[in-house]
Amino acid sequence: MPESSIPPPGQSKPWAILLAAGQGSRLAAATGGSAKQFISWRGVPLYWHAARAMSRSATIAGIVFVFPQIDHNAHKERLRELHAADDLGLPWLTATGGELRQDSVWNGLRELPADARHVLIHDAARPFVTPVLIRNVCEALQQGIAGAIPALPVTDTIKTVADGLVTGTLPRQTLVAVQTPQGFSLEQLRQAHLNAQEKGLGVTDDASLLEALGYKVHIVEGEVSNVKITNPDDLALLQDAPALPRPCTGMGYDVHRYAPGRPMKLGGILIPTGPEVVAHSDGDVLLHALTDAVLGCAGLGDIGQHFSDKDPRFDNISSSLLLDQALDMARQAGVRLCHADLTVVAQTPRLAPYREEIKKNIARLLALPQSCVNVKASTEEGLGFTGRAEGIKAYAVVTAWAETAPAPVASSSF
């Protein structure tokens, strides 16, 4: 965790209140009646994107989700499903929304833990908020101020009007457009809300409540991308460009000891001059490293997880079958290999006579052109267990293209 994200002694991380209780009347017709914060984008509701950003900022202690009173339990159950599939790594609570925005905030404040000292208030309809902005607001609060809000300079000329006529022009240099999340000292924000309730004040953001009590609210630089989904035209911001494949890399490593056991195979090729190796499968150290690299590319764990050396099904099994299974799992995950670079490290045997045959066979197993497969051999100049000719090891690095959102993949079918 970066040092800047660690609260000073005596200060705890702020909690966040995520406001998802609005009705979104301006968008109702365009969304079929669904409130904007529940619009599905990239497979999850808008509010979940903001929650992810909170989690990834490493500066938030927990989140209170404020949902509409109607269907509150259904939204809470959906939240449980989202969290089960994509754990935020943060505790969370829920609260019921009120008639006004500030009522919803107050209900959220009432759910905060007793030891909370600071709070961030964020509109769920701002799904593009970044962990960086959240962190900047939290860091400002560490200075002991009452409030910190993100804002951007106003670039348009702003005029006051009445009955269709201009009544004045405001000095642009003194104006900013305010965003969320807004961060506050919890004690002072509660005071401000109680004052508003007593005096019947109605405001559009929490900073206004502190201003009414004379507290100073500080500005941190906002983000142009931190747009609030408000009007039907804003829905175009949720139209993603066609997903481009992403590059990914996997690295594999394996080692086998020399001792009476299995005849040496490398890359599926028998090495008659090599010592025998101890292994549960056929002992192909190079294909084992390659299989591990393929699984790594697809984020699917390691070879031992799928092909345990304790499983009798894999006793003396051909390592090419294990590789083929890993390749099939990677394809299901949307991963397509495009290059493999492999290194065998051994003092003995001498592998130069077998290098091209190994390369050709691995290219066949991977369904790649030979130009996309590289096989190297090296010694360690007498150092270590390989230098003492006690064993052999192999490294594999594979490069691939992966779909942006791969489908879930089952484990080995063996």
UniProtKB/TrEMBL annotation:
Cofactor(s) this protein cannot do without: a divalent metal cation
SUPFAM superfamilies: IpsF-like, Nucleotide-diphospho-sugar transferases
Keywords in alphabetical order: Isoprene biosynthesis, Lyase, Metal-binding, Multifunctional enzyme, Nucleotidyltransferase, Transferase
GO molecular function, one term: 2-C-methyl-D-erythritol 2,4-cyclodiphosphate synthase activity
Location of the region described as 2-C-methyl-D-erythritol 2,4-cyclodiphosphate synthase in the Swiss-Prot/TrEMBL record: 248-414
Catalysed reactions, as listed in the record: 2-C-methyl-D-erythritol 4-phosphate + CTP + H(+) = 4-CDP-2-C-methyl-D-erythritol + diphosphate; 4-CDP-2-C-methyl-D-erythritol 2-phosphate = 2-C-methyl-D-erythritol 2,4-cyclic diphosphate + CMP
Pfam families: IspD, YgbB
Binding-site positions, 4-CDP-2-C-methyl-D-erythritol 2-phosphate: 254-256, 280-281, 302-304, 307-311, 378-381, 385, 388
Known EC number: 2.7.7.60, 4.6.1.12
Protein name according to UniProt: Bifunctional enzyme IspD/IspF
Domain 2-C-methyl-D-erythritol 2,4-cyclodiphosphate synthase: residue ranges: 249-399
Record function comment: Bifunctional enzyme that catalyzes the formation of 4-diphosphocytidyl-2-C-methyl-D-erythritol from CTP and 2-C-methyl-D-erythritol 4-phosphate (MEP) (IspD), and catalyzes the conversion of 4-diphosphocytidyl-2-C-methyl-D-erythritol 2-phosphate (CDP-ME2P) to 2-C-methyl-D-erythritol 2,4-cyclodiphosphate (ME-CPP) with a corresponding release of cytidine 5-monophosphate (CMP) (IspF).
Annotated PANTHER family: 2-C-METHYL-D-ERYTHRITOL 2,4-CYCLODIPHOSPHATE SYNTHASE, CHLOROPLASTIC
Renumbered residue ranges of the record's region 2-C-methyl-D-erythritol 4-phosphate cytidylyltransferase: 1-247
Marked site: Positions MEP for the nucleophilic attack: R172, K228
Pathway annotation from the record: Isoprenoid biosynthesis; isopentenyl diphosphate biosynthesis via DXP pathway; isopentenyl diphosphate from 1-deoxy-D-xylulose 5-phosphate: step 2/6; Isoprenoid biosynthesis; isopentenyl diphosphate biosynthesis via DXP pathway; isopentenyl diphosphate from 1-deoxy-D-xylulose 5-phosphate: step 4/6
GO BP terms in the entry: isopentenyl diphosphate biosynthetic process, methylerythritol 4-phosphate pathway; terpenoid biosynthetic process
Annotated family: In the N-terminal section; belongs to the IspD/TarI cytidylyltransferase family. IspD subfamily.
Binding site for a divalent metal cation: D254, H256, H288
Residues under site feature: Transition state stabilizer: R26, K36, H280, T379
